[in-house]
Every structure is written in C-alpha cells, then in structure tokens.
Design brief:
single chain; alpha+beta; 19% strand
C-alpha cells in the first residue's frame, strides 16, 4: 500500500471501531526512543524516518508532530497532501486536539504506548470539546499493517562483571536499599536499558541498541522476576542470572501486575506506560510514582566503565581518522556518495576487530542534506559528494567496553568564507562547553547557552539540544542528564550534573538548502579544584573522551581568542599522542599534518 492508502485503511478501521481519531506515537511499550521494527507504526503509516514524532489521525484531518531536528526531513518524507506539519514544543498533541477534535468525538489511544501524565493532559484538553480519550484493547494500526514484522527472537547474552564493573547482585542490593528507603515492596522496571544494566545482560532486539524486550520486577530483598520470551534465554544466561532471578514468559507480565493487592509498588511515571499503572491499581496495589532507581545509578559511570569507554574511544577515533583521510583524498575525484562513505566508515570500524554494531544509523549527509540534523540516507535520497559541499558524518560504534558517538565535517574541495565563519563559531561554542567549570549540582539547562553565544552574536542558532548522556555498551542516548534549554527539543534539562556522568558536546549550525555543521565529542564530568576558590565548594569540569582531528581548513583562527586557539592546539596534540601510535604509514603522516598547531 502507498502511505495514502495506509491512512485510508486506518480511517476505515477507526470507523469500524467507533472512533473519530487515533494518536500514533513513535515509541514502544517500554517508552523507548529507538524501537524494534514491529513498533515502527508511525513510520509505516506516514513514511517518516526520524526517531521522534507523533501523528494524529482524524476523519477529515491528519497531523504529524516533530521537533526542530526534523523540520526539513518531515517535509521531504511525509506528504503534505495527507498531513499537516506541526512543530513541537511550540504546539502539542493535546493542544492541537483541543482545537481540531470533533465536538463530542471519541479519540483512541493505545495505553501501552503513552504515559499516565499524557493521558491525563490529553483527556483534559479534549474535555473542552466534550470529546473523550478512549483506550483501545488492540492497536488499530496492527489490524491494517498486514506484513508487520514480529518482535525479534534474538537471545540475551551475559554482560560480564569484568566489563560492567559491578555485579548484578550488588546493583539489585542497592535497589533493595532504595525500596526500603521509600517504604516500597517492589519496583517495576520497564526501560530496556535499565533492565539490561541491572541484570548485566545485553540483547539485540532493537537496532543499534543492545537490549532485549523484557520487563522486570525487583523485590525488597533484591530478588527479581524477569519477564522475557522463553526462547530468548539459554543455559548460559540462566547461569549468569542465578537463582535470585526468576524467569517468566513476557506475556505473563500484565497478569503479574494484578497480583500485588495491599503492596506498595513503585513505577516510573516517565518510563512506565499508562497500562502498567492501570493494571497495578486494578490489582489493588498502592502505586508509588517514583523514578526508576537504575536511571541515575546507570548514568554515574564506575571506573571500569570509564576505562572501557576510553579504550573504545581510542580504537574508534583511529578508525574515524582513517576514514577522514579517505574522504579528503577520494571524494574530490568523484564517484563517492553518502551511502558509499557510510559503508567505508563501517569497514574501518569493522577492521578494529571489536565492533559489535553501530550505535545508531550513520548520518552521512552532504550539502543540503547536512541541514537536516538527523538526516537518514536511503537509496532514494543518496547524493554524490561533490566539490563545494560540506560533508557531515555523525556516527558511532557499539563495543563490548563502550558506546561511541562523534560528528565531524569535511569540506569537499575549498570551503567558502561563510562556511569557515559558521564552523569556527560552532567550534567556539564547543570549546565553551569543553572548558566550562561549574558548581556541583549545576544542570544542563544552565550551560546550554555557553554553546550558543558565538552563534547568537551573529544572529544564528541551532534547533536541538547541545548534549545528551550516553550508555556503557547500551543506549547512545541515555538520561537523565542532558545539555538543553527550554526552547529546544525535550525542553530544559534540570537534572543536576554529577561527577561520573558522560555527555555529548555537539553544537551545530544548519543553513537550509545548503549545508550543515556539527562538532561532537563525548565528555566525562569530573571534579576539579580551582586555585583560590572556596575550599568547601565542589566544582565540576569536563574531560574530553573523543579523539579525532577537527578539520583545520574550516577554522578561521582570527575568530578565536588566544585561549580558544590554545585549546584547539592542545586538543590536536592530545589526538596525535593518543591516536598516532595506532596509525601507520600515510594515515599517520596525515594525522600529523592535521594535528599541527593552527597557522
């Protein structure tokens, strides 16, 4: 079916169900950002290939909601003949329904794909039109998606304690202490990366994210009930989990939620869907809306995880450096495309002998495609790398000892003066974050403007957050920490920064129809001592973890302060010292030239 036909089929199914509309989010029953093929309902319905968005289908209208990262992409992939484009956070699904839902209408939603807070807010908005929000027992898209893939059957794998840095038993004991402090009998874990981290297991049910479709309930003594398809667990995993982890079929989870009458059960209101809260309440449990205790613990990397990430970053940086040389020498001769470049980078990473997967779909974007921050190249969109373009490559690797994420920009031929100006302003913002020193407890929203000021001074900006957390052989996007202000996707990041948190540092600039620029390294938050400062005031700074040259031909040294110039030279000296020993021959000679002090 065409996407137009799919929309018509859904409308017919809604009419059969007595519904006047339906809300289609891009998530799964675990509120995941990245989802398995079986849960790609938004993409199937609309053709949208981004990683964040929602659609609303009414009888005579349909709208798709995306943030500033996808302003261009959604218009390229989703037909304006069928859909209207709505920007978030400027507008919201609830706000749009409050003005567009039919008077007295019935708007359906899947309670396994929305939070309780979303349900309450949207129901309130619909009440203004005497409309009601109706939970569905079965998702109507599944009824018309005839070739919908089945969930992945891939098996779990143990993540050894030697790489995790702590045993699952120790992590579960910490959760037991947390439950005691909150006078709770158990906690429901629904976030796939939380379950993987707590139990020291990994999977391959979601592309590029090593997690397994499962749920867990951790009790006050640390024992755990794991709900996962039986065929996904072999004897090695059973032995790894031990007797304190009881195994159940994933299909038994809903019923198990209804067996806690008289008990105090914690569940995360941001990560557990409305259906879970409803089932617990229906079973007589007192539900405590508390944040998943693994979220912060997982974000505070232990020394083994930090060491593993450093090792992964070095091999990844060497592979990326080899690739950057290849682009510089080969692209000017013609014959290379966005797809061929992404394939070549994958080959360099695979040559390390350690790559398990990429950490997300590589953003290989040349020219105007670079202006879409989350552009995804396809056979249809594949563009050649031609002189005069800027080529943006945002990519990462999944290694058993760490997850990487890095962005670089390469000019194909000589860059223009404007490109150099914009690139240098982005670099200045990147340096401002990398060198920031802030009081312990400062949140990401408070430093986001550091990265934007050089652009703001020229009347410019970028429509995404400046940084996100990252997992340890887990999700490439990991909370709770971020660097973001209220005006940008995801809203303000009010989570206090703490030593041990990892963050990306990725300011950018995007000129629609022409080019995109982003410079991304990963950072480790570390305690710092400021000479002459208050002795009782704990300060934090950042250690850069990513090592690959930043394209010097795009830097205008006249725009840099002496301190910024010194940082750039010191960073490149560090790149050469760390990556140089891994490279040989022409690759090494190229790196030496790229890491020389600025002229």
């Amino acid at each position: 079916m065409t996407h137009h036909a799919r929309l018509a089929a859904l409308r017919a199914e809604l009419a059969r169900a007595g519904l006047d509309g339906f809300v289609v989010p891009l998530t799964d029953e675990h509120m995941s950002e990245y989802v398995g093929g079986y849960a790609q309902r938004l993409g199937w319905l609309t053709g949208f290939g981004g990683s964040a968005g929602t659609a609303v289908v009414l009888g005579e209208a349909a709208a798709i909601f995306t943030d500033g990262r996808y302003t261009l992409q959604v218009r390229e992939q989703v037909s304006a003949d069928d859909w209207s484009y709505v920007a978030v956070p400027q507008d919201s699904v609830a706000g749009w329904l409050a003005t567009h839902a039919p008077q007295g209408g019935r708007i359906g939603y899947d309670p396994w794909l929305h939070t309780s807070a979303w349900v309450a807010d949207t129901a309130t908005a619909l009440a203004a039109r005497d409309a009601t929000l109706v939970p569905v027992a079965a998702n109507p898209i599944d009824a018309v998606w005839t070739d919908r893939p089945a969930p992945s059957p891939a098996r779990l794998t143990p993540h050894p304690d030697a790489q995790a840095g702590r045993s699952s038993a120790a992590k579960r004991a910490d959760i037991a202490d947390w439950l005691a402090a909150n006078r709770a009998d158990a906690v429901v874990l629904t976030a796939l990366d939380s379950i993987a981290w707590v139990l020291n297991v990994r999977g391959s049910d979601v592309a590029h994210t090593p997690v397994a479709l499962s749920y867990a309930i951790v009790g006050s003594d640390g024992t755990t009930d794991l709900f996962v398809a039986p065929d996904k667990v072999d004897d090695a995993v059973r032995q790894h989990l031990g007797n304190a982890v009881r195994l159940h079929d994933r299909d038994a989870f809903d019923g198990a939620l209804r067996t806690h009458a008289g008990r105090r059960i914690a569940a995360d209101p941001e990560r557990a869907v409305a259906a879970i809260f409803d089932a617990l309440a229906a079973g007589g449990a007192t539900v405590l809306p508390l944040r998943d205790p693994a979220v912060l613990a997982k974000a505070l990397k232990n020394p083994v995880e930090v060491a593993g990430h450093r090792a992964a970053s070095l091999r990844d940086g060497a592979a990326l450096s080899r690739f950057l040389r290849w682009v510089e020498t080969e692209a000017v001769h013609g014959g290379q495309t966005e797809l061929s470049a992404a394939a070549r980078l994958l080959e360099f990473r695979q040559a390390t002998g350690c790559l398990l997967d990429t950490s997300f779909d590589t953003i290989s974007a040349t020219g105007a495609h670079g202006a879409s921050p989350h552009y995804h190249v396809t056979e249809q969109s594949n563009a050649p790398l031609v002189p005069g373009d800027l080529f943006l490559i945002d990519s990462g690797g999944q290694y058993a000892d760490g997850t990487t994420d890095v962005t670089r920009v390469v000019p194909i031929g000589a860059p223009t003066a404007e490109m150099r100006d914009r690139f240098t302003r982005v670099l200045k913002g990147h340096i401002a974050i990398a060198t920031a020193i802030v009081p312990d407890g400062t949140c990401g929203a408070q430093i986001d403007a550091f990265a934007r000021r050089p652009l703001w001074e020229a009347g410019l900006d970028f429509a995404h957050g400046t940084g996100h957390g990252i997992g340890s052989y887990l999700s490439v996007h990991e909370g709770p920490q971020r660097i973001a202000s209220p005006n940008y996707p995801g809203g303000a990041s009010l989570e206090p920064l703490r030593a041990g948190m990892m963050l990306s540092n990725e300011p950018g600039y995007y000129k629609a129809g022409e080019y995109g620029i982003r410079i991304e390294n990963l950072l480790l938050t570390v305690p710092v001592t400021v000479p002459g400062g208050d002795p009782d005031r704990q300060m934090l700074g950042f250690e850069t973890l990513t090592f690959a040259p930043i394209e010097r031909s795009l830097i205008d040294p006249s725009l840099l302060t002496p301190a910024e110039r010194a940082w750039t030279d010191a960073y490149h000296a560090d790149v050469l010292a760390r990556i140089g020993p891994i490279l040989a021959g022409e690759d090494h000679a190229w790196l030496v030239s790229k890491c020389a002090p600025l002229d």
